[in-house]
Amino acid sequence: MRIMGVSGLAGSGKSFVSELAAERGAMIISMGDIIREEAKKRGESTGQTAENLRKEHGQYIVAELTIKKIKKIIEDGFDSSIVVEGIRSPHEVELFKESFSDFIILSIFANQDIRFERIKARQREDDATNFDEFKIREDRELNFGIGDVVSLSDKIIVNESDLDSYCNEIREFLEEYNV
Question: N or C: which end of the chain has fewer CB within 10 A?
């Protein structure tokens, strides 16, 4: 069993990593889903909730909730790999590494224009609809420390070419790291 984190800015291609890992039997836990669930409870936007949770409970809160969930899953007998999608801060990486000795992190990179076009195309409920909104979200995530997460990564994959090449690179990574 392997615990792996996936990081990258919005629209970089994190969900493809999760999809391919799931095909190999991994369980996917999205930190963004945890925030979206909490946002619904609070009646706030996901961006507001992400910031408010950290203000109220500290930089580690989303990671702490995710780790608690993973430990429960393992306790219940799940013994395949677990992929944590959406790690945003070096504080979160540190906490995962303290909690799981074999934790690895993969970062996905794509340039801003490519990512914005992908976001417009996917039309997820909390996605920006114009470039100014997109930039605000990006600045918020950069302020969380996502750039530092990239520097802590075990591997960085650049996702700016065709989908087949990107998927092949992910498959090679998953095989190499036994996810």
Answer: N
